Amino acid sequence: MKILGRVALVLNIIGGINWGLIGLFKFDLVAWIFGGQDAVLSRIIYTLVGIAAIYCISFLFRDRALND
Predict the structure, then answer these.
(1) Is-above-0.70 flag for pTM?
(2) Which ranges of the chain does DSSP label H, i.e. alpha helix?
(3) For residue 49, with 0-12 CB atoms within 10 Å meaning exposed, 13-18 middle and 19 or more buried, which class applies?
(4) First to last CA, the chain
(5) The dihedral sign for the CA sequence 11, 51, 5, 59
(6) Which of 16, 17, 21, 45 has its C-alpha lying 20 to 30 A from 7's C-alpha?
(7) How many Å separate Cα 19 from the centre of its chain?
């Protein structure tokens, strides 16, 4: 898997953990670390996670193994 794919998966894992915390405990870890949901750094992280998720959609349509 190329480096971009690995970065995208890491960002999706971060996003998934954050959503799990929000769902279970109403705690937004990204907002807590970077100064609230409206903070510029939080919005950048949210945007990167969203872009990574869109990129990871392409993994569903690849013929070769993901661990190349």
Answers:
(1) yes
(2) 3-25, 29-34, 40-56
(3) buried
(4) 5
(5) positive
(6) 21
(7) 10
User: Residue for token digits 């100064």?
Assistant: 35
Confidence label for 67 from pLDDT (cuts 50, 70 and 90): low
pLDDT of residue 63: 74
Contact 28, 22 (CB under 8 A): yes
Give the 3-state secondary structure of residue 43.
helix
Half-sphere CA count of 65, side-chain side, radius 13 A: 2
Contacts 24+ apart (CB under 8 A), 22-26: none
* Interatomic CA distance for residues 58 and 54, integer angstroms: 8
DSSP state of 58: G
